[in-house]
Amino acid sequence: MSRPIQIRSVVVKVHRYLGLSLALFLIVIAATGSVITFYHELERTFNAHQRVVLPRQSGWTLHDLLVIRQKLEDQDPRSRVFSLQFPMRPDESVFSRVMGATDPATGQPYELNYTEVFANPYTGERLGERRFGEFSLKPENLISQIYFLHYALVFPELAGAFFVGILSFVWAFDCFFGFYLTLPQGRKVDKGTGKGKSFMARWKPAWQIKRGAAANRVIYDTHRASGLWLWPILLIFAVTGVTLNLPGYYAQFVSKFSGYTHFQENPAWPTLARPLDKPPVDWFKALALGQRYFAEQAKVEGFTVGKPAALEYRSDLGV
If you average pLDDT over every residue of the chain, what do you get? Predict the structure, then answer.
């Protein structure tokens, strides 16, 4: 057996077993991904009492939302709202992410039974809370459960995201194995003319499904041809799966040969020895500074500042 044939035989087996191993996970990820494409619309349907409010002509200001953020913390001193998502629609509630505040007695964060809180931006009323991804038969938890299942499957959040990232990494490699197997093997030369078909002429059947062939051949052609036509999309899904689930590793790798940075997952400086729970700059001052910095950069870089979307505080970085 020649070396090219041996290599091809090994690649066939690797591609086959990787495909079988990935199949179940990819079916779940694809099914849940097609649902969460409409995440916000579905959330407004199944979780309307927390997501949708009655708009008022008086409106609200960003200062009002920061007051509401403080109010939410005051209602449960064990909690700390570290992320405040500003409503993008007049009938949208304030969405905030929460973690346990530091217990002065133990120095450890309090254990909370929720990680998200919703509030009315016009009145400050607390509309409810939930733990992201927690299994529940309540309608308001359904879409967040599907979202969690999409990127963490049934594992704990961090472990699940890492596992799906590894699956995406393997999938990306398997895309190249599959592509290699579609390429034509050694060129056959006609004994009479001494000429053979061109590379594209020999590769053309891989892009097609042979009509009238036996069932096994049709299935094989369908697998190969659909994989070729959709190959760029499949590779994009695989690579972005790595990017979204392993952003820190991705940032470290890409930053070695480009100017790419990822502040949240790969910050430019180390985390603090202890989280800074009470920064010298409060949320109101941070909002003003953030808007000023954006305005300054807009003039320098020549872009237009859109509507503010969120304000977050990283106590582990003091930012």
Answer: 92
pLDDT tens digits for 176-207?
999 999 999 876 666 666 677 888 888 999 99
What sign results for the dihedral spanned by CA atoms 129, 312, 38, 35? Answer: negative
271-290: buried (b, 16+ CB within 10 Å) or exposed (e) per residue?
A: eeeeeeeeeeeebeebbeee
pLDDT attached to residue 191 = 61
Contact status, residue 211 vs residue 42, Cβ threshold 8 Å: no
- The type of residue at 5 is I
DSSP string, 144-185: HHHHHHHHHTTS-HHHHHHHHHHHHHHHHHHHHHHHHHHS--
In sign, the C-alpha dihedral spanning 206, 209, 210, 214 is positive
Predicted confidence at residue 1, as pLDDT, reads: 57
Among 122, 140, 69, residue whose Cα is nearest residue 284: 69
- Predicted TM-score (pTM) of the model is 0.85
Which residues are paired to 83 by β-bridges?
A: 97, 312
